[in-house]
Amino acid sequence: MGEVQEQLQQDSAMEVAAGTTQPTEQDYLWPAIRFDLPPRRTHHFYKQFRNGPNPKNFLKGVKWSPDGSCFLTSSEDNTLRVFSLPDNGGSSDSSACSLDSDGDSYEASLVVTEGESVYDFCWYPYMTASDPVSCVFASTTRDHPIHLWDACSGVLRCTYRAYDAVDEITAAFSIAFNSAGTKMFAGYNKSIRVFDVHRPGREFEQYSTLQGNKEGQTGIISTIAFCPTHSGMLATGSYSQTAAIFREDNMELLYVLHGQEGGITHVQFSKDGNYLYTGARKDPYILCWDMRKTVEVVYKLYRSSEQTNQRILFDIEPFGRHLGTGGQDGLVHIYDLQTGRWISGFQAAADTVNSFSFHPFLPMAASSSGHRRFQVPDEGNENLLLNGDENCASVWSFSCASAMENGGDISGGNFTSQSENDFHHQQ
């Protein structure tokens, strides 16, 4: 553990990695994406999530690594899995994946099993496969401290421990690295604890999300996001159905946003930092807020989520022009963020698509599906639990305008052609 701690203190190595391996604007293919055409499923995984003592295991989220070399999944069996992307990215037409194939596209390159249910997980923001020191991700689980895992070996690098009034470990419900990658922000009940990434252990700064006059944010802080452009500003979501904006340096409360009908489970800033998007459990709308005038909602983006307790994570593509979100109907919806209007949708799974994550620079995305079932289905529906198109992770490849111009073949199944009004419900 001592050697690992020394590695974490090598700031210069991480800064070099962050400054030299990130893709340039010329590397991005997103401006040429054809979101009006269905994507092609290039990789599919479901059997690995059914091995083990829990036959009703389901996925809870998926996130691409910052360098795009792999993606990380979390599932109900308290397991985190890293899937490395093949060298060719699976972008060729010949790599289309069929659900009829018997088995997964390939095995996870790393499997990490936690002792309890995983509340949240996130990548180190400057992670790059070319620098092993930076290849880490963090997780927080029930009754455990925050863990920092080596994404190459699965070794536990270090822990960040918070204690309650009786000196017992209390678990964070949400975690996020700040934009500089130097601090770990963790959400608790009506409070935020801030850890120095390079000083593991039980040292932290604690801030209440309530002000002295009892104004502010109550409840469990369930999600945290940092503004990509306005350095030093972060957003938090709470199960009290509010989102809040704070200053990073002193956690000064700037304003509180009210409007979601359920406990907030996800917040994300637009790429230019001018807008904030919030989503909540059992609330069919993602709300768009203008950070320059937060009095009212700019527009609402619809997704079906009224009947599932599963949190549904959405994502914004790298150029910030489109947002993708799943729903309880197994569909993924793509929205134009300039107008707030629905662009297209496609069937990604037979169950709730609880997470959709765009690749950081390739025209690809990953999805995960499944949700907790509180009632065992009757015998006639028993096969539903064994469907390869349910409780699965998939990688999708989008078509580019350049491919169309070159006569490229555009294939993909279950494209949704319903009218825009079926999906876009704007106030």
From TrEMBL:
Read off the InterPro entries from this record: SWT21/TCAB1_mRNA_Telomere, WD40/YVTN_repeat-like_dom_sf, WD40_repeat_dom_sf, WD40_rpt
Gene3D superfamilies the UniProt entry points to: YVTN repeat-like/Quinoprotein amine dehydrogenase (2.130.10.10)
Q: Which domain of life is it from?
A: Eukaryota
Span list, region Disordered: 1-22
For bias type Polar residues, the affected ranges are 1-12
Q: Per its UniProt record, what PANTHER family does this chain match? A: TELOMERASE CAJAL BODY PROTEIN 1 (PTHR13211:SF0)
Q: What is this protein called?
A: Telomerase Cajal body protein 1
Q: State the organism of origin.
A: Hevea brasiliensis
